[in-house]
Design goal:
With 280 residues, the protein is of the alpha/beta class. The chain has 2 domains: 52 residues, no CATH class; 210 residues, 3-Layer(aba) Sandwich (Rossmann fold). It contains 11 helices and 10 strands. The strands form 2 sheets. The protein has a 7-stranded mixed beta sheet, sandwiched between helices. Helix 5 links the parallel strand 2 and strand 3. Helix 1 runs antiparallel to helix 2 and helix 1 crosses helix 11. The longest helix has 17 residues. The protein is globular, with a radius of gyration of 20 Å.
Amino acid sequence: MSYQKQHEFGLIGLALLRTWLIGNKYTTRKVLIEMIELANSIKNTSSLTLKKVNLFGVGEGYKNWASTYDSLPNILIEVEEPVVRGILKKLPRGIALDAGCGTGRYSKFLCSLGYSVTGVDLSEEMLQKARTNSKQISFIRGDLNELLIKNGSNDLVISALALTHLPDINQALAELSRVVRIGGHVVISDIHPWLVALGGQADFYDNAGKYGYVRNYVHWHSAYIQAFQKNNLKIIRCVEPTINSEHLELAQKGFELSVTTVSAALQGLPAALIWVLEKE
């Protein structure tokens, strides 16, 4: 059995849980029929063996992912990016650090808003993509846990879809706080912890079509709040953008499931967790 099939069974299970007692009975019936059809498609128990999928460390994973990162659709980015862009537009202009910048999607956006931007990432291959697309921005290799940036040298620091790869977020948040000035802002976005708790990982296909993933870790709201308090970061806003009807076609992509089942499983649930903070 492929991991795709396992994922499809999981989505069906989530759809059934969400429609249990309070759901529309016709929707529940459609989901149950789809579950039976999916189970019947498995010919014998020998097909239940799951094929191995490569687990990569952060540096190696994004090295392999770099060639396809900007070209393949990503529902998390589709949900997260419009909200983060709206937040960034409202903040005062100045010097900005994009920590865990990847191919530079927020570095480029900040530059277009008038910020002076530096991007930092662990993956040299992702940075090469970023430099190709944004020659006026300084991109340097670095680690979120040990940023080679001066204390208080930035008016704004953003870290997008990166902290989830760290088993512990405390050191990275201490670094983000250290490099922003008092009164400056830190914006953090990441995959929502409920989604990670249900198995959401940073899975990807490389340029050769090989499938792999980088590990995500669960960081509940309480873990963030405790780390913010330790590092003099005051919460200004917390946003949890949801998977809505306009995202369902993308959520359905790659699965042999009806939009009814995908909608029952995912619609209205948050995909991202976004924090807006001020350094005290």
